[in-house]
C-alpha cells in the first residue's frame, strides 16, 4: 500500500522520518526532514506504521547534498543530508519531546554545544569481509558497504585507512581464522587496532610473526580474551591537564573536540567540594575530569578498574577508591560509609537499573549529575527520580555525534 503526500515533521533517533496520517504515526526510512513524499508501507503496528520512501514530491528547504559518496547506502550517518543548524534543532526537539513524554515537563529551550561537523571521531568500528575489505553496514540492513574513507573519522585515521586495510586483507587471505570486525582508535599520535574474531594458535603465530613490530598498536580480541600483538596495547590521552591510560576495551568518548566541553558542563553542574560517587566509572576519565579528587568509582569491567587506579596515580589523587562491581552493588550503608556528597552516572544506552534509582533516592543524596547518550532512557530515569522526591534542576546538551541523531545530554537532578 502506498501513502501519498506525507509531510516529514521530525526525525527519530535511528534516522527515520516521522509523519502523521489518519491518526497514526508513520516512521519512514530514507526520509529527509521537511520534505513531502510518497511512501510504501512495510509493516503495520497497533499505533504506528513503518514505511519506506519511494518518491519525493516537495523537497525540503533544509536539505543539502551530502558530501560523503557513501551516504545513501551507508548506515554510519543518518542526517548528513540536512544542514547542520537544522540537525541541532532536531536534537533539541528529540530531548525536549523525550522529557515531556516521560515527565510532563515543558522545556522551552535547551542549549546544545556545537561540534565541528567532520573528522571528529577518535574511534570507528568497521566490518571486515572474508577478503579483508573494510566496510560499514547498509541502512536498516546487515549487508556491507565497502568504503575507502569515512568523513567522520579523525584525519590520522583517514590517512592510515588504506594501510590498515592491507593488514586486514593479508590476515584474512593468509589465515584460516578471519577478522570479523576492526575497531580503530587514536589519540592523535598513535593508532590502536582491535581485531575482533576467533583466532586459534596457528593464526596467532602468523599475525605475531608478521606484525609484532608494526607501527600500530595491535590487539586480537578473542571474545573476552585480549591478546597483545604489537605495542603496549593501550593509548595515552589528555583531557585538559589530566592524563589517562585507555586500554583496549575501555570506554572513552569518541568526539575529540567535545570531550572537554562535555565534562566542563558536568563539572559546573556538580559544584565544588564534593565527595563523588561515580557509577559506571570506566577508567575514571569522567570523574577525574569532573572532580579533581575525593572519588569513589564503581565499574563492572575489571580491566577498566585497573586503569582507573593507574589514572588516579598519574593525576596525583590522594583520596580515591575504585571497585570492580555491578552498579547494583551500592546500597545506603555503602553511601553513608563512604561519606558521599553527590553522584555522577554515565550508564549504557539502556539507562539506570530501577533498583539503582531506588537506592540512590533512598540514600537522600542531594545531587545527581546524569550524563546520557539516550534521551529516552534519561527522561524515563528523571521521572523515576521525580517520583522519589527529586526535580530536574538543569539540563544541557553537547553534540558529540554530528551527522547522526545521537546527542549527549547532561542533567542535574536535585533533591527537593
Describe this entry's structure for a reader:
The protein is of the alpha/beta class and 416 residues long. The strands form four sheets. The chain has an eight-stranded mixed beta sheet with strand order 7-22-23-21-20-17-18-19, with helices on both faces. It has a seven-stranded mixed beta sheet with strand order 10-9-8-11-12-13-14. Strands 1-5-6-4-3-2 form a six-stranded mixed beta sheet.
What attributes does this structure have?
seven-stranded mixed sheet, 416 residues, alpha/beta, 9 helices, 32% strand, 23 strands
Topology:
Elements: E1 2-7, E2 10-11, E3 17-21, E4 24-29, E5 36-44, E6 48-58, H1 84-103, E7 112-113, E8 123-128, E9 134-137, E10 144-146, H2 155-174, E11 179-186, E12 191-197, H3 201-211, E13 217-222, E14 225-230, E15 234-239, E16 242-247, H4 259-270, E17 276-279, H5 285-290, E18 295-298, H6 302-314, E19 320-323, H7 332-337, E20 342-345, H8 354-363, E21 367-372, H9 375-386, E22 390-398, E23 408-415
Parallel strand pairs: 4-6, 7-22, 12-13, 17-18, 17-20, 18-19, 20-21
Antiparallel strand pairs: 1-5, 2-3, 3-4, 5-6, 8-9, 8-11, 9-10, 11-12, 13-14, 15-16, 21-23, 22-23
Helix pairs in contact: 1-9
